[in-house]
Amino acid sequence: RAGFYAENLLLYNKNAQNTGKLPLPIGKNHRFAPLALGDLAHLAAVVLVGQGPHGSFYWDIINTDFRRRGQLIVLTGPQMCTGNELARAASHSLNAGMEYEEISHDKAREILDAQSDIDESEKQYLLEYYSLVREGKTDYVSTIAFKHITSADPTPPSLFFEDYSEEFKPKRRKVTSSHRKGRGAAG
């Protein structure tokens, strides 16, 4: 089970591109550890098709150790982040200024409604997750199972932003000649 996919941040990419701000309703000092979907896919692939002494890795985990049957694998990204830390990771990876913008629950819903085509249940899940972040209930990292199963480290936020740099890089505004002429002119 993953709490928050890093790709959910793509829902705010237009705002990030247009304003250079990453708007999230998580509070100034609250933290969470976003998980890249590629990491979940990697784990699933290893579990489902990886080889072990009795066939697939999945078979070995589930059927040879009764203590693991029905157990949930909790996954998070490798790094706890506040909104400011996420924005710094984005700035560094994008080589462009990115700031965190604290927004209200209502503003988050407004942005989700305007900038994305996700269904209502997904919006509700995200808004509830943000509430958990604000309540301090997401202040943990869970990567041991991922490392044990895949022999790899999960993707940190800086690499996530590198992978999706085109979606987050701020758009440069075009300055027309009439704007240039108007600057500094006495009116």
Describe, in plain words, how this protein is organized in 3D:
The protein is mainly alpha-helical and 187 residues long. It contains ten helices and four strands; from the N terminus they run αβαββααβαααααα. The strands form two sheets. A two-stranded parallel ribbon has the order 1-4. A hairpin with a 2-residue loop joins strand 2 and strand 3. Helix 4 packs across helix 8 (157-163) and helix 5 (105-115) packs antiparallel against helix 6. The radius of gyration is 21 Å and the shape is globular. InterPro entries: NAD(P)-bd_dom_sf. This is NmrA-like domain-containing protein.
Give me the secondary-structure topology.
Layout: H1 13-19, E1 21-24, H2 37-49, E2 51-52, E3 55-56, H3 57-64, H4 83-94, E4 99-102, H5 105-115, H6 120-134, H7 144-150, H8 157-163, H9 165-168, H10 177-182
Parallel strand pairs: 1-4
Antiparallel strand pairs: 2-3
Helix pairs in contact: 4-8, 5-6
* Helix content range: 40-55%
Which residues sit in consecutive blocks of at least 5 with pLDDT less than 50? 179-187
Question: Judging by the overall fold, what is the CATH architecture?
Answer: 3-Layer(aba) Sandwich
What is the straight-line distance between the termini? 62 Å
Q: Shape from CA axes? A: globular
Helix/strand class: mainly alpha
Q: Biggest sheet, open or closed, and with what strands and sense?
A: 2 strands, parallel
Contiguous helical run count:
10
What is the H/E order? HEHEEHHEHHHHHH
Protein name: NmrA-like domain-containing protein
